[in-house]
Amino acid sequence: MSTYGRVTNDWFLRYAAAPRATLRLVCFPHAGGGAAAYRRWAELVPESIEVIGVQYPGRQNRYGEPVIDDMTTLVDEIVAAAERELSGPVALFGHSMGAVVAFEVARRWQAGDSITVRRLFASAGPAPSARRSLGVHLRDDDGLVAYVRELGGDAELLELDEIRQLTLPMVRSDLRLIETYRYAAGEPLNCPVTAFVGDRDHTFTTADARHWVLHTSAGLEVRSLPGGHFYLDDQADRLVPMLVERLLPR
């Protein structure tokens, strides 16, 4: 196994063998993040669920590959990779930027016939139709670091010159992707959506989460957990069982 997981293709990382899995939980990282954020989740799910982390280019085991700063291109690539890798029922979890990437992937899969989306978990990310650009990707490097610090991210690491030079271009590219994204109206998802909010996240509140109701015909649930924008870093032991509870029949 590699540092980041068992790579079956460049896009999907698995952290534990799951030969008895009947459903796959496909997890989409935030801007500047990578699939390794979901590594521990594989230890927290039953054997009937397989955790798969989506690895965007330009980070972790894909460092050195060109980053993708356009939503349509990113979704095209993920969907094409999934044709060779996934089938059957899946659930999608996306955090911040990843919530919208997961939504757009779910729309594509819903229009096909090989993958069935059971549920979308949208974490700390505004609904596609409610997104507004703050122009963060246009700020200078210090402005970008200040934004990461404001969200509660690892801004201290970005104070180190070597890490800043390696990381900031990728962060900027991801922010450009999500800030230039424009929602195109279409059929709502036919699966339920559960939106998760950190109770101290000033960027995404329960009121913001309710906008996701516009993007599903199967119902919206909003849940809050302790923490800020990156609440899931400290709340995996509470969050993952909540996902499992909504995915497995009782």
Automatic annotation (TrEMBL):
SMART domains according to UniProt: PKS_TE
Stored Gene3D superfamilies: alpha/beta hydrolase
Superkingdom, natural source: Bacteria
Cleaved signal peptide residues: none
Domain Thioesterase TesA-like residue range list: 26-248
Keywords: Hydrolase
Protein family membership: Belongs to the thioesterase family.
Protein name according to UniProt: Thioesterase
High-level lineage: Bacteria, Bacillati, Actinomycetota, Actinomycetes, Micromonosporales
